[in-house]
Amino acid sequence: MLKINTASTHRYFSISAIVAVIPIVMVGIGGLIPLVYLLAKAFSAEGSALVQIVFRWRNAKLFLNTLLLTAGVLALNLLLATPAAWLTTRVNLKGRRLFTVLCALPLAIPGYVMAYALLAIGGNTGIVAQLIGTSIPRLSGYPGALLALSAYTSPYLFLNLRIALLGLDPSLEESARSLGYKHYETFFHVVLPQLRPAFYASGLLISLHVLGDFGVVSLMRYETFSYALYTEYMLSFEHIYAAWLALMLLVFTACLLYLEAKLLNNAMFHRAGRGTSRQVPMAQLGASRFSAYAYLSLLTLITVIVPTSAVVLWMFRGMDMSALEGLLEALIGSLSIAVPAGVLCALLAVPFAYIGVRYPSRTSNALARVAYIVYAIPPLAFALSLIFCLLNTADFIYKTLPVLIYACTLHFLAEAIGPVRSSLYQASPNLEEAARSLGYSRIQAFFRTLFPILMRGMLTATALVFLATMKELPLTFLLSPAGYETLALNVWSYTTEAMFAEAAPYALAILVFSGIFVGVLTRHETQT
């Protein structure tokens, strides 16, 4: 049984822990049991057929393509986000808060919308050809996928590095400077090693997005495991090879998780003593500040202005009033998934956060990580395993809206736990004990003491999951009911047919909704 050191509250918290564990176990079963059916489907082939499926040359090519794309996106993100994080935290530039928001704004632009914008620029009928009369080659393949995914995922590294830089102990840099280190030597020998956790955490998150991406690689026609999994599922009848591709993708993901844990094993980055909290003096660039402004402006141009302008230009070029009817239907379809998924994730995040904060132990940590394990499963692989599970157990609910909401809730639950856990850290365990001593029941004590404190974190969690679900494509594509419309599905389906004008209203709606939520989520951070 889970324990807490406070003897007077041992019985109360033990019962609460048991109640909290129940939804955690249900989430674990709901997320991991479908993988059993995926394994069963994969090993349903026999003998030589199994060997031929696993050891074919195409699998090696898919692995190499996926590895190259992941490594390329990580490398390009280092070049894009690292200088931006440094300039917005350590340099005395006017408009630093504005540039912080602009560098985080690509979070509002889904990868497939970024790919749509890049495709819409080039070609004989592209935006450039319409504006200046000269066409440029249309980006596709590896270069197109690399640029679209890098622009889309750069905020993850930017925000992690920014937070890490703001939290560094300035005395370390002062000591290095007093020993004669120059500015660049201080950065490489003192600052950069302290940023390792931020690099590893954001690198893992970016890699998971690249491995799970389906829209960008499909539009750019670049074969990765996700793209091959999609085509194999759509074209095959028995889906055995699709199951093996999903398992290979899972193994790739597991290797990344193991590598990240190994790199951070026994690493220490905190102060040896208490120290004091002081702000690092801002660097004065002088004449070179114009280069800094140019860099941040160019980054904003590539990641925000170009894709947004492409969507708006195609919107006005191909404006059709009849498209608004489909837009309304698709918007309602997206909201029908995003709203319940956001609310459910916020509610389910409470027991996960409660166990992790109130009962810190190996057991509670293991339970709290169940949601992160499910989140690490690439969406296409998770959707495919859920399909196999449903077809063998409950085929009557296959391709229904509740199943789609269920899948989105399980997949995005990990994104909701952090804000709720942060709110719970601010609540003393004595609040519940005091309420119990006044005669309130356990449920009444929770709602009168903890729930008001958790509300802010739950609202943030709801917004995060809402934002993620509005942009979600792989789960929606494989699990949505026949004929069901969402904004993401319409953007992807029209863009695959090079119908950029028809896709523009749906892409713009996603940008507007996502931009509003990104602005809300970054407002408090920019005030620091």
Detailed description of the structure:
The protein has 528 residues and is an all-alpha fold. The chain has 24 helices and no strands. It has two domains: 55-268 and 285-309, Orthogonal Bundle (MetI-like fold), CATH 1.10.3720; 318-496, MetI-like fold (Orthogonal Bundle).
The main β sheet shows up as: none
Tally of strands: 0
- Reading off the top of the CATH hierarchy, the class of the largest domain is best stated as Mainly Alpha
CATH architecture of the largest domain: Orthogonal Bundle
SSE order in H/E notation?
A: HHHHHHHHHHHHHHHHHHHHHHHH
Portion in helices: over 70%
The whole-number mean of residue pLDDT values reads: 79
Stretches where pLDDT falls below 50 for ≥5 residues?
1-13, 270-277
* Number of helical stretches of at least 4 residues: 24
Please sum up the structure shown:
The chain has helices at 10-42, 47-54, 57-90, 96-104, 111-121, 127-132, 141-166, 170-178, 183-194, 196-212, 215-219, 225-235, 240-264, 289-317, 323-358, 362-368, 370-376, 379-393, 401-425, 430-437, 442-471, 474-479, 487-496, 500-526. The chain has 528 residues and is mainly alpha-helical. The longest helix has 36 residues, at 323-358.
Spell out the blueprint of helices and strands.
Elements: H1 10-42, H2 47-54, H3 57-90, H4 96-104, H5 111-121, H6 127-132, H7 141-166, H8 170-178, H9 183-194, H10 196-212, H11 215-219, H12 225-235, H13 240-264, H14 289-317, H15 323-358, H16 362-368, H17 370-376, H18 379-393, H19 401-425, H20 430-437, H21 442-471, H22 474-479, H23 487-496, H24 500-526
